[in-house]
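Write out the 3D structure for:
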Amino acid sequence: MPLMLSGLGWIVLAKSLPWALARTFGTPFEERHLMHAYYRSARRACRYRLRGGPLEHAFPGYLCIAEDFNCRHPGQDVAVLLFGRRSVLGTSVQEIHSTR
């Protein structure tokens, strides 16, 4: 049990620390990407998601989006403009805009 809790603590720390540092001390960025909007029935996670682009090999490999964004581009590839902050340890996406 202690081994499992320490492993879970490590995962939380490994994901949240780079995010917090990027959010606090990172430099602003703006990038264009082609991503895919889709719906996934989920109880605990977000239902409307974007995948691809810079998240191709990331965990988790998606960004949560608003329902109305997904309704405008259901199941489609969409050109997006991502705004956020980036540090050496990671990236924090703060805004997503479709470029159409």
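The chain is about 30% helix and 40% strand.
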